[in-house]
């Protein structure tokens, strides 16, 4: 018996009990008699609980976000924790996996003869309410009323909002059929494949046009399209990068990144953090030149974060293992002042 048939025999009270078991309002201070009316009010008008925001992109321009208000954000985090975390995603999806890093997206492509990098245009905006309803909240697990509510709570104006905490996990579930199909197709041909959000990477020795046509056709069946302007090909004699990690011989942060980080640590050790920061700020307005102790601590914490990133990609890097200890000592000295 299918899930749809099974739920047909449930009473309204059983459906409400199932909804209550999802703990969507954990952490929300609300009176017991208002529990369900609150959920229905938010799910019936989710667009009223978002505000627009913009963040700069690394390559220039801005990324437009829709950010949920505190109430909806709490509900979405509960959906993420109590609902979405229960469903497995494809092994080919490398983003938004708890306990994993971008290194796992890079490792399958190390030492490849050729890399093909493709991008999905307007990725989150292209994921529809019906895809969320069908793929993220299957009928075998939830009755139609709960599936509709959950999909409404994760969508805004019938699409997936970039900026909601649930959107990354939902996108992986929606893309699971695509990932499985493409992954199996590539595996049969000895091609490496991973997807990190809207970035797809293919590696090995293959007919580039055949891969692009296959991806383009299957994406179209799901309502997506390729961003042709972001298609990149990298040969073995060129620098090959996957989600910012160099993969020609082994996963490694770029030389330029390591060189700049190495210089920052050297100057802090040789001249002191205050002196180094003062020189970095030369030319700024006088009111910005005054350094506080918090500025120095924050800068050292940033350095430590960058070192940890390098070591996450390459834990065997002895130079940055030593650098990590140096920066930790600097922080410890400031804590004891």
Automatic annotation (TrEMBL):
<dbReference type="GO" id="GO:0046872">
    <property type="term" value="F:metal ion binding"/>
</dbReference>
<dbReference type="InterPro" id="IPR051083">
    <property type="entry name" value="GrpII_Intron_Splice-Mob/Def"/>
</dbReference>
<dbReference type="InterPro" id="IPR043502">
    <property type="entry name" value="DNA/RNA_pol_sf"/>
</dbReference>
<keyword id="KW-0808">Transferase</keyword>
<protein>
    <recommendedName>
        <fullName>RNA-directed DNA polymerase</fullName>
        <ecNumber>2.7.7.49</ecNumber>
    </recommendedName>
</protein>
<dbReference type="InterPro" id="IPR000123">
    <property type="entry name" value="Reverse_transcriptase_msDNA"/>
</dbReference>
<dbReference type="GO" id="GO:0003723">
    <property type="term" value="F:RNA binding"/>
</dbReference>
<comment type="similarity">
    <text>Belongs to the bacterial reverse transcriptase family.</text>
</comment>
<dbReference type="GO" id="GO:0003964">
    <property type="term" value="F:RNA-directed DNA polymerase activity"/>
</dbReference>
<dbReference type="InterPro" id="IPR000477">
    <property type="entry name" value="RT_dom"/>
</dbReference>
<dbReference type="Pfam" id="PF00078">
    <property type="entry name" value="RVT_1"/>
</dbReference>
<keyword id="KW-0479">Metal-binding</keyword>
<keyword id="KW-0460">Magnesium</keyword>
<dbReference type="GO" id="GO:0051607">
    <property type="term" value="P:defense response to virus"/>
</dbReference>
<keyword id="KW-0548">Nucleotidyltransferase</keyword>
<keyword id="KW-0695">RNA-directed DNA polymerase</keyword>
<keyword id="KW-0051">Antiviral defense</keyword>
<feature type="domain" description="Reverse transcriptase">
    <location>
        <begin position="36"/>
        <end position="247"/>
    </location>
</feature>
């Amino acid at each position: 018996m299918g899930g749809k048939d099974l739920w047909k025999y449930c009473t309204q009270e059983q459906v409400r009990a199932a909804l209550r078991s999802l703990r969507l309002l954990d952490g929300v201070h609300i009176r017991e008699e208002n529990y369900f009316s609150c959920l229905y009010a938010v799910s019936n008008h989710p667009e009223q609980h978002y505000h627009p925001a913009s963040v700069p992109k690394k390559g220039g321009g801005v990324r437009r976000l829709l950010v949920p208000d505190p109430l909806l954000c709490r509900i979405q985090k509960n959906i993420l924790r109590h609902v979405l975390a229960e469903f497995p995603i494809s092994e080919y999806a490398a983003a938004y996996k708890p306990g994993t890093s971008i290194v796992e997206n890079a490792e399958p492509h190390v030492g490849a003869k050729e890399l093909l990098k493709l991008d999905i245009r307007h990725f989150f905006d292209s994921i529809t309410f019906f895809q969320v309803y069908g793929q993220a909240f299957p009928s075998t697990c939830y009755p139609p009323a709960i599936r509709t509510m959950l999909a409404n709570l994760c969508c805004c104006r019938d699409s997936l909002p970039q900026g909601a905490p649930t959107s990354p996990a939902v996108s992986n579930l929606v893309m699971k059929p695509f990932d499985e199909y493409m992954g199996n197709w590539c595996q049969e041909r000895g091609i490496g494949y991973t997807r990190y959000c809207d970035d797809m990477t293919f590696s090995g020795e293959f007919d580039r046009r055949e891969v692009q046509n296959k991806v383009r056709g299957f994406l179209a069946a799901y309502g997506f399209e390729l961003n042709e302007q972001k298609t990149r090909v990298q040969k073995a004699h060129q620098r090959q990068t996957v989600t910012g990690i160099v993969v020609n011989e082994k996963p490694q942060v770029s030389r330029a990144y390591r060189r700049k980080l190495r210089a920052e640590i050297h100057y802090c050790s040789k001249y002191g953090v205050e002196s180094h920061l003062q020189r970095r700020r030369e030319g700024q307005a006088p009111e910005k030149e005054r350094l506080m102790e918090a500025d120095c601590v924050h800068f050292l914490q940033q350095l430590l974060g960058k070192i940890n990133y390098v070591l996450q990609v390459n834990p065997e890097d002895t130079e940055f293992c030593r650098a990590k200890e140096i920066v930790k000592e600097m922080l410890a000295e400031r804590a004891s002042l």
